[in-house]
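TA notes. Do not distribute before section.
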Amino acid sequence: MRARYGIPLTLTALGAACVGYATLVEPRSFRLRRVTVPVLPPSMHSLRVLHLSDVHMVGGQRKKQRWLRSLAGLRPDFVVNTGDNLSDPEAVPEVLDALGPLMDFPGAYVFGSNDYYGPKPRNPARYLMEKASGNHGLNGNAPAVGAVHNPWEGMRDAFDAAGWVGLSNTRGRLKLDGGQEIALTGLDDPHIKRDRYSEVLGGPERDADFSLALVHAPYLRSLDAFTADGYPLILAGHTHGGQLCVPFYGALVTNCDLDTDRVKGLSTHVAGGNRSYLHVSAGCGANRYTPVRFACPPEATLLTLTARD
């Protein structure tokens, strides 16, 4: 009897344990990643940038809200938010409460599809089935007929009132406490085809101390354009780091046309004879209908920008 049923029962128990871990434990195991990027002009002092993405706030997520508020203790020089703050149209007040202490620092933001539109239930099996197409994953949520409109305007107004710079197909600048002036160029979300690079052509602004680029979803057309124009650093989110990863192997999907080797963390991108650093945040949330993570804990990143060699 043991020989006949022992292995299936063991596999069933192991599967149940993995499901429980992926739904109850890892999505609440928030981490801070620390990365150094040698990208500043040689004469410039180092800067600390807190990169947040894919908060996907749902009402009642108290532990996530406490963790986000605690990040203000890092005292970054500025904050970059690369979108998808919402996964619940009622959660704007909780997003603003959680990010409130961080809004005391200079900051910039772009929005993602889930800021504009509420998520819809999807068959989780499509997460793996769509791997070959490279189009969508668990957090794929391009708007469709009947899509729920999120009240993103109030969130935008609060960010703007705090002095954060909105960068949806536009440029902006941050004046830091140390006197440095940072030029930023951002695109609206390529995942739902709101990006308009023609509106921000021209490359880095030479009269600023440093220039960088922001986009929610790291589609290759956006990375190619930013890199070819000479931006030394691009920040993005959207991928959730793959969300469901295989230990010792990595991500199976990226939810865009980026390769899985660069689904999260620091890498480089080459286009037009130029090379840019690319940092993709694995994000600190997930779509409310697929609130799972495996071998890819939720995170924020503290980037220390240092002088290049």
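Switch to the second chain here.
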Amino acid sequence: MKAKHLKYYETYSASAPLIFMLAGLFTRTHVRKLSAMNRHKDYMALGKTPELLPLHHAMNTELLRAAAEWDSYDYGEGYFYQGLDLVGITGLRNTRSRVDAMQLEQLVAGKTVLEIGCNSGFLSVMIAHAAQRVVGFDINPHLIKIGQLAAEHIGADNVELLVTSFEDYKEPEPFDVVLSFANHHTFDENTKQSIDDYIDRCHQATKPGGLLVFESHPPEHEGDGLPGVRACIERHYDITEERVLDHGTYLDRGRTFMLATRRD
């Protein structure tokens, strides 16, 4: 989205959906085309929910600030990487289908939860109603602000979203459930830890008998490294479930899901 488009989130405009649709026709990458189409879809829905316009204005303001101030890789490429249907955001990845496919609401019910590298925190916000407490963190302050806006809007006061890296995060006490979703290594080169160090940190953050919920990168990005990651997990956890996910968008499908219980 361009800065000049922010005005469309101040007052609903009947011409804005066409402008967003045309933007998708004249962009080159598949991700940017999907972003433009989803932004068009989101904006069309705002015609029926104009009360969400101030929230969308605030969140899109943060996206523009991120584009101007954040010099690392933008996973959403100017749009929202994650979706949150509770506030009318489609996103590039379908958060609702991820939660359902991994049965996260059941896994976190009444428990304390840590989400590593939470991006905009939309997944943390979506599961908050089921959990006792959710802490998510990301290094991008603009994404964290977006998540905080969403959490405040829906009244998810048991969600805490922090600006930090996993290397610097100091948990006051271990959690019942640790969510590791495609963060064991990253393509923006902001993860400095080895896989061994990363899983060791996950182990420290998980209560004895607690759960590690793991999602891999897509196969084309994970490459042949998954067996090594699995071996690292098995040093500290018993893997009780492993399967390939088939849900949501092309960015969701084909990832490997593992559920593992920390040994005492």
